[in-house]
Amino acid sequence: MTTIPLQAYLILALILFCIGLFGALTKRNTIIVLICIELMLNAVNLNLVAFSQLGNNPGITGQVFSLFTITIAAAEVAVGMAILIAWYRHKNGVNVDEMDGLKD
Amino acid sequence: MGTLSLLVFSPFIGLIALLLAGKQSDNITKRIAAFSSLIPLILSILVYAQYQAGSGLSEILRWVQFEVGEQTLTLNYELAVDGFSVILILLTTIIAVLAVFTSSWQIKQNSHLFFMLMFLLEFGILGVFSADNLILFFIFFEITLIPMFFLIGKWGGTDREESAFSYIIYNGLGSMVLLIAIAAIFVTAGTTNFSEAAEYFRTSNEAGLQLGIAIAFLIAFGVKLPIFPLHSWMVKVHVHAPPALVMIHAGVLLKIGAYGLIKFGVGILPASFTTLAPLIAILGLVNLLYGAYLALVQEELRSVLAYSSISHMGIILLGVAALNEAGIQGAIFQSVSHGLISALFFLLVGILLVRTRTTNLRKLSGLARLTPVLAGFFLVAALAGLGLPGMSGFVSEFTVFLGIFENMPVIGAIGTLGIIMTVVYMLRAILKMTYGTYRNMFGDMNDLGMGELIPATILLICIVVIGVYPNTIALTVQQTLETLLVGIGG
Amino acid sequence: MIEFAWLIPALPLLTFLLLIVLREKLKKASGYVAVLISGITFIVATLVFLQLIDVGNFLMEWSWLTIGSIDISFGILLNPLNGLMLLLVAFISFLIHMYSLGYMDGDQRFSTFFAYLSLFTSAMLGLVMSPNLLQFYMFWELVGLGSFLLIGFYFYKNSAKQAAKKAFIMTRIGDVGLLIGLILLFWQTNSLRFVDIYQAVTNGDMSGGMITLIAILIFIGAIGKSGQFPLHTWLPDAMEGPTPVSALIHAATMVAAGVYLVAVMYPLYMASSLAMMIVAIVGAFTAIYAATIGLVQNDLKQVLAYSTISQLGFMMLAMGVLGYTAGIFHLFTHAFFKALLFLAAGSVIHAVHTQNIKEMGGLNQKLKLTSAVFLIGALAISGFPLFSGFFSKEEILASVWAEGQYGLFIIAIVAAFLTSVYMFRLYFLVFHGESKLTLDKVKPVPMTMKIPMMVLALFAIFSGFFNTSWFGTYIADFLEEGATYLEGIHHGSSIWLMLLATVVSLGGIALAYLIYVKNALNQENWKTSGTYQMLLNKYYMDEFYDNTFVKGSRGIGLGFQYVEKYFVRLIILFIGDLVTTFSRTGSKSQTGQAQTYTAVAFLGLVLFAAVYMLKGGY
Amino acid sequence: MDIQTLLSFEWGMMAPEFTILIVGILLSLLDLFGKDTWKKSLPWLAVGGVGVAIIFLLFQYGHGDISILGNTYVFDSFAFYFKLILLIATLLILLMVISRTVQQEVRDRGEYLYLLLAALLGGMMVASGGDLISLFVGLELLSLSSYIMVGLRKRDVRSSEGAMKYLINGSIATAFTLFGMSYVFGLTGSTKLVDIAREMSGSLGSGEPVAIIGFIIMFVGLAFKISTVPFHMWTPDVYEGAVTPVSAFLSVVSKSAGFIIIVRIFWGIFGNATFGGSDTLFATMIDFIAVLAFLTMFIGNLVALRQRNMKRLLAYSSIGHAGYILIPLVSLTPVSLENIWFYLLAYAFMTIGAFMVIYILEQQKQSEDISIFTGLYRESPALAIIMTIFLASLAGIPGTAGFIGKFNIFVGAVAADPAQYILAGTMAVMTVVSYIYYFNIMVQMYIRKPQLEGTTKIARLQSVPLILCVAGTIGLGVFPFIALNFFH
């Protein structure tokens, strides 16, 4: 079985990260924005795992790291959803571009 | 605590007394302020006497240490005075007493806060003149900013807030430039003590850095002095601040610029100042003539005096540029002399404002008719300002020109045009007010009362004493002069 | 007695202080106090002078200003020259104090007037006793102050205000020359003492060019003070002051200080023929220039003022042609007869309350004494034989001739001729002809005014005999005693010169008589002529100055005002605007859109990376 | 890792963290199950906990460097001093929370407390983190707690909005940080800082670009926390949306934690990484960070000029201050760390003090506009003078801690090689710009007359944090050597 080179993972992760970032910056729906952020974090996980397996000094650390990342990503979304619900109660909507009450 | 510390912190007695007294009736507040303003005066006379007696006044107390690499930088709380500063201290306390006295009839509201800020200001100024290292100097220098800001902003004239901001911005910039320069000295010389820093730079050969620091000094003190084109704030302050405050401002605060230029500029970096001397001379010339010609066309007495101050500060610059004994002594004399004269002027302006509510030259005329004594004092102040022999202004102008002619006769010759212009604008302004026909616009005016006459007379006596027998202060500054001259190599 | 010489300036100073502080309390008495003290001053001065004749020289010094290694002193110097001046000033001052008692009677600021007068006297006495140039300069300025205060005594009059200002400024211009000169001199000789300066000149410590430069600069000071062309315009205006002031300051003493200055610095001038030449030319030109103006003026005091300028020109001319004693002698005699003329004019004005000679006439009926003393003064100034002016003026002419300056000699002769013409024009118009004033307007002249006039009249007649080739050259001998550098430049006079002077003087008087008494010439014809208008308008010098220097200065001031408004302020405004713009832009970009915020951050990252790559080459 | 090794660790070094953890858990339990009567004393429990933690920490003064748990927890002097700042700042903020007089949302009170403690714990973990994972977890603990705290005022739409913005921006920043970390991990194969530093100190070779990308991306992610330009834009909105104590917390504790992690990672790792032969990687990046410092000072202070909302104003001012603190970061002199530490300490006192004054006025006047200060000197001279002290310190007037902090930074910038004259100059100019808005507040307090006559009273509880902050501000200004000697 030929191993897929490390670069391939890295490029995939990079693409994933960029897609996530693009979505996070452009989508109106807050939930999609949150999902896109998840996408970015998953790109990180991909990186970590790939490095863990194929990097300079392969080891388990990268995978452990990615576990932490997943957990925290989950927590982030949970908090995000909670806040969004509070917002929804006020504005009856989930569009991120409507959040412009605070500005100069 | 030595006498000097006692002196520097003595204004706090008044401040605390006022604080403890709380908001009393106006009269009590004023009485407390007046009496406590005498304490620094008494102490400063004591300091002067001790200095004359030759007893050491310096104090030192370790304060902060920095370790930069193998270097340990120490900041001390150290006070000391030399001939120049002891005279300026005396000037400060005298003018402060008079300003407090005169403000008691000028300040109608919130006198409680006013006097507290005045004492804070006096504290800062005394500290500036007593500090023996640059950091301490800077700290006191900055401390003067805050009370000045409020005093201008709260009790000033029409554009008081704008003037206050203009004051704080210009002086803030100046002091920040100073701070960088001080930091640079601190780091390179490892000390900020005046004499130690001077010693260091005498032997070091970092010419570029020294020149940079010298230019920074020139800018920083140039704001304070002020040097064209950094003068706008000062005109505003002169015009819009309460006259009692301008007594201190024009009388003492501007002198910090001269003091700094002479003591740090020439004292610490004589070599760079020799390089800069032509520039300083030209700046001085510009100040002298620019101020004089502008003073000629002003329609407001206080603007005339403001530009006149700029013009007179040009003379200080010329003296500094001369970099010889006569020039520097002249600059020192001019600092003291201009301090006294402008204090007298603004004392009179305050007196006038109480009566007429305006100092517009178009509105004033023939004041000598109803208030001959006030008019007489104005005239005398003008004569002092234009350098009439027998008054302090002459001695300083003569000495400066004596100095500048040795090194830069051409600059000196052009500068003498300023002497002529001074006469022209001074007489124009003062004669416009006091001479001519009296137009009855202000109703009945009383001439000076005792409370006004005495402060004015005290200032006048100081001016005349220095003018008639300049050795009263000349002998005191000789030691400073010698120290400076060693640096210049003259 | 001579040790108490310091009392001479101190006493009038005391009067000044006393009167200025107690002017409300003393009121009328202040006049008597002033007269009394000035009398004492005169007595002290006389005693000192008498002792000085024996002693010859006297010097007292105190350290005054220490500047590092430089030590400037203050002191008293007495020598023949300033001893003579001292006496002269103290004497005339005393007389004029007395005269003022009557003249100023009833004035609201009676005490103030005497205070100012005393201040001036003090300064003038201090001036002549100065042992060094700086002290000289200081008193020089202080006499200017006295003059200023007294010219502007009627402060409520706009013209007085302007005149006072002008006097101060014009003389200040000259003073600056003096100041530069003395500073340059200091750096040449390292001293300001007269003796050291003489020494330096004698030793040849200074280059010739430098001596000339300094001499000319110092002469500029003299020009200013002595009303020489081109700084003369203040002197006629100075007549705005009360007349006793004109007599004391603007005729007898202060204006002569310029001549005195040249005399004091004489060694310096002697070392530079160019400087001497300039002094002579300026003097001669001023003499004829002022005389021509004096011919047509209609204000009594103005004519006298121009006459003063002209006479001062004579003195300068004398100085410029090595006629040291002649110049001082003329100063001496001029002090008496010009003071006399002014006092006489003052009593006329006091009596008739006008200064316009066109409104006067026939006053010799009403003011007999005044008319007589005026005539004496006029004869003296015209150089009528045996009057004091005759001797001094003749000596000046002799000096000019002896130096071989024939051009200047002719000018001097013409000027002398014009002097008699305008003086007698004045005399005839004021005291002869028909009276144009209603008689009841004429007030009697009080005794306090008469006595000084009579005393001065005596001196105007006889003071010439102090220095004649007939009876002895006392003054010249005395002066030369104290000034060794004057040896061997004595100009003897000759009979033909005396005759010439007499002819010139009589000719002038005769011409005036023909024109103004006999009306031999049609005066109306001139009045339209350009020359007449030019003379009447004083060669348009005032207008010239007004349009150039005064307007010019104001123009520069206004120009700077523009710089202030549009350059300095604009820079500030620009910076202010810049700050505001940045501030507003920064604030506007804060839209409230969370995604924009991150987008900006991401953009920052991209820029960050891009710049890095461009720079680092990755 | 057997039980033996586990026990052999010096667990005592973690006593402050454990204290906070235990008190935090206790608080949450008591808040959930405790009686209402107890709830009043809950805040005091929190204060006591932080106090005890401070005492524990102080006992560790002078303790040698150790690391436990396989180098994931490091105790060194750096950790000690910065933890102290976090604890002191949190203590002050807790006192601020307690002092609340208007009790709008009583039910939230307990939550604030344990969230604060959780965030504090996160910050402390960051200070002691020796491993990318522990650093990251600590940072996220801090961030997540902060998101919730900002959003806790559920009934206020501004609170939710602020929280949402904070969360979106913060999460993206986290993603960036992690992405960068993943590269660093990939390059060295380790998450332990010591190992990474060791790996990087050798020649990176072809790894250099990766290291640089890692550096840049990570820096961007972390710059968000300290709100430097251009990653600052969330700051004012979030500060405005949060309740004032939380704003103060974000402005002080969260920002300090940001600086801590930046110093840890960038000096620790990249400061050792050789680059292009001679320089360290960090040294090559100095110019870029310097540009950021410049922009941060510039924009923070200039935009602050236009603010009328006090919290926004302080938000911009805090951006400006972050710019100042970046200067010692790039100066790289032996005093840099000391300067950062001192400035953060001074900044904690003066900023919390200023927020406290705003908090007091905001509760009485129901407004955050600058006009709440109008005529304050008449209404309450003491409060006006106290505010003046904080403002003076923020503006860097001598006699206050802010001045010493700024002066130190100047000295450091000038002493650096090459000397950072441009940054020092910018700081100088921007300090003067900051005078305008600080002094404008003073103008409001002293010179303007109040629209409505009334008195403002300081409650006894409110005076406690005020006095502490004043003491800190003045004390550090007049006797800076106490703190500086302590640091050595």
From TrEMBL, chain A:
Family matches, as InterPro entries: NADH_UbQ_OxRdtase_chain4L/K (IPR001133), NUOK/Mnh_C1-like (IPR039428)
Listed EC numbers: 7.1.1.-
Bilayer topology term: Multi-pass membrane protein
One BP annotation, GO: ATP synthesis coupled electron transport
GO molecular function term, any single one: NADH dehydrogenase (quinone) (non-electrogenic) activity
Transmembrane spans: 6-25, 32-52, 64-88
Family: Belongs to the complex I subunit 4L family.
Protein name as annotated: NADH-quinone oxidoreductase subunit K
UniProtKB/TrEMBL annotation, chain C:
Localization of this protein: Cell membrane; Membrane
A single GO cellular-component term on record: plasma membrane
InterPro entries: NADHpl_OxRdtase_5_subgr, ND/Mrp_TM, NU5C-like, Proton_antipo_N
Keywords: Membrane, Transmembrane, Transmembrane helix
Its membrane topology: Multi-pass membrane protein
NADH:quinone oxidoreductase/Mrp antiporter transmembrane domain ranges (all copies): 130-419
Gene Ontology molecular function: any one: NADH dehydrogenase activity
Ranges where the NADH-Ubiquinone oxidoreductase (complex I) chain 5 N-terminal domain occurs: 64-114
Pfam family, one: Proton_antipo_M
Transmembrane regions listed in the UniProt entry: 6-22, 29-52, 72-98, 110-130, 136-156, 168-187, 207-224, 245-268, 274-296, 303-325, 331-352, 372-391, 406-430, 451-475, 495-517, 566-582, 594-614
UniProt KW Cytoplasm keyword: no
GO annotation (BP), single: ATP synthesis coupled electron transport
Entry-linked NCBIfam families: NDH_I_L, PRK06590.1
Family: Belongs to the CPA3 antiporters (TC 2.A.63) subunit A family.
Name of the protein: NADH-quinone oxidoreductase subunit L
Automatic annotation (TrEMBL), chain D:
A single GO cellular-component term on record: plasma membrane
Record Pfam families: Proton_antipo_M
Location of this chain's protein in the cell: Cell membrane; Membrane
A molecular function (GO) term: NADH dehydrogenase (quinone) (non-electrogenic) activity
Positions of the NADH:quinone oxidoreductase/Mrp antiporter transmembrane domain: 130-430
EC number in record: 7.1.1.-
Alphabetic keyword roster: Cell membrane, Membrane, NAD, Oxidoreductase, Quinone, Translocase, Transmembrane, Transmembrane helix, Transport
Membrane topology category: Multi-pass membrane protein
Enzyme class: translocase
Reactions mediated catalytically: a quinone + NADH + 5 H(+)(in) = a quinol + NAD(+) + 4 H(+)(out)
Membrane spanning stretches: 12-30, 42-59, 79-98, 110-127, 133-152, 164-185, 210-234, 246-270, 282-304, 313-334, 340-361, 382-401, 421-443, 464-487
GO biological process, one term: ATP synthesis coupled electron transport
PANTHER family in the record: NADH DEHYDROGENASE (PTHR22773)
Subunit structure: NDH-1 is composed of 14 different subunits. Subunits NuoA, H, J, K, L, M, N constitute the membrane sector of the complex.
Family, as annotated: Belongs to the complex I subunit 2 family.
HAMAP family tied to this protein: NDH1_NuoN_1
Chain's role: NDH-1 shuttles electrons from NADH, via FMN and iron-sulfur (Fe-S) centers, to quinones in the respiratory chain. The immediate electron acceptor for the enzyme in this species is believed to be a menaquinone. Couples the redox reaction to proton translocation (for every two electrons transferred, four hydrogen ions are translocated across the cytoplasmic membrane), and thus conserves the redox energy in a proton gradient.
Protein name: NADH-quinone oxidoreductase subunit N
Organism name: Salinibacillus xinjiangensis
Classification of source organism: Bacteria, Bacillati, Bacillota, Bacilli, Bacillales
Gene (name only): nuoN
